[in-house]
Structures
1.
Amino acid sequence: MENKITSTFRKMCSFLWTGVKRNYDNLDDNIAKHLGDNPDETVEIHLSKMFSEVFKRHTKDEADRLFIVGTRTTTPSLKKVSSRPVKPWFFTRVFLVLAVSFSMLMLLLYLFQSDKAIPGMIFIGSLAVPFSLLMMFFEINVYQNISVLQLLTTFLVGGIMSLLVTMSLYLALPIKTTVSIENALLVGFVEEVAKCLVIILFINRYKVNYIFNGVLIGAAIGAGFSVFESSGYVSEYGLFTIFTRSFQAFGTHTVWAAIVGGAIILGKVRKKPFTVRDFFTKPRFFIFLLLVIALHTFWDWDIPNTTIVMSLIQEAIDVIVGWFAITILIDAGLREVKTLQGQIITNKKDSRRMLKRIKTK
């Protein structure tokens, strides 16, 4: 029976991949067209090109420049913001440093039997993947208008605050310990809404207005949530949990919160705060929020009578859908840059025409 299910799934994947291979280059772009104000704007984004800088050699000065952002003197004007396809690379170096640090702590524990390495392993192991993803979204923020201080504040304070809101909602709702679809849905709803509320708070606090800003703030809060939650799970279920939690962090809270952050920007009026009315009346925001709740529910749902292989397939589908939503938001973010820069050019032309008319009169 299991072989038949696996065979059927492989055929389905092969069929889907054939279609994706033919249409993927335009699929995310076609969806992103409907999120922006200028559907005729063209943007080129391919995952193979997006990560093309990862394996290239980069200088220390290039790395330093990534962090000198977000101040009055280092934030570029809108016309100088790059609308070219984003190509993050530094996040892999961050992950490498954290992975090496974790490996050294493992040596300290297993080679020298030092229990003092355990707290460090829990923290670094929980931090490695979420924080590396956060650095990727930091690189992708082409507006360079959020400083490292703001980012770390959002990561720490926002992450803990989202856990506080989550626990407060858990007290008000009947969460059970069963692994039913109903309970998975309730957990997904509570945690994603809790993170969403905190993301809204920080977006309004920082007065940001761009899709990439929302994605970054969401990723910071999601990464903080992930780190502290994973640390708690390891303390409760044992050190080996850190390996599964770290692996799973690639497609969970950081990615889900980044999607919600971008959706909040899509759902609010530019240069105005996100309101309670926006929460319930903006379809573009609400669709992404429902998607994230569905992804979280699907991730937590322990489908009855399934094997480990099917559980891994379930997680893989979840990750693929989540990252596809991220590529859509990146595409929409680049479209937004081009649209805003086009408006600047149009406004300048209109101003020149007005001046010519005034001089003629």
Note: The first helix runs from residue 2 to 33.
2.
Amino acid sequence: MHAWLCENPTGVDALTWKELPTPTPAAGQVLLKIQAASLNFPDLLIVQNKYQMKPELPFVPGSEYAGVVEAVGEGVTHLKVGQAVACLSGTGGFGTHTLAAAKLCMPLPAGFPAVDAAAFIMTYATSHHALVDRAALKAGETVLVLGAAGGVGTAAIQIAKAMGAKVIAAASTDEKCALCQSLGADATINYSTENLRDALKTLTEGKGPDVIYDPVGGEFAEPAFRSIAWRGRYLVVGFAGGPIPSLPLNLPLLKGASLVGVFWGDFARREPQANAAMMAELAQWYGQGKIKPVIDSTMPMADLKAAYAHMGSRGVKGKLVMVN
């Protein structure tokens, strides 16, 4: 097998494409032949030693991937050789093969292509957990999605619309706003050229959004929170925009609003049955055509460093997927 090996987490340039012995699955594991692996923001942080999870060196990055089971370890009964699965394990995806814990593998129904499957779990699980579980979103409510043209943002638009909500999508270019409208967003805000608070006031007739989905952080967090509706829920999803913002705590008090943390990974670990039920619902929604990953582009696995550069340019709409 071959894989991108991180022996020193000083950044993307330190990754090397190496031939490695193909491993044998231990008890509870499966060996997967990887067909596709998506690039997520944590995949950049982890090779820079900036992610909360710090794997033992050396490691193969690539948190999310899809492929075919080539061998099963002792005790694995729900997966068979030749079965198509998707997996989010945190590492291992940027190669031709990997070992994965069988319990982390999501069996794929017929007609679920590997490229879509590799771009599915992290964004849709995060967005479903955020909007359904943490925000208790109701039909008819208004959701503001920040960073709406990215991976989790596009998933959030689709899930909110599937739940009957009104969606205001905020993004940094007119092209990204057009993408959001094509996914069902009811209105868009280009926050490079428009004042976020003024636009929200106009679009919500002064009421403000009921739910704010924020995977960006940075400079827009405070003005967005100042615009939130009474009893609004502000979802803290991530900080792709850079600095972790500091919000004045009088703002939740004045609006009777909630500041809600979203950590899907720990939800999946602590509440596995609830997570499994959620994933089953998402797979069903995919089959019904309610949700579908937005693929910016696919690139050969050998071009991983170029893919990282593309992601770093903030020009990505949806997900980048590496293919073998």
Note: The chain has two domains: 2-120+293-323, 123-264.
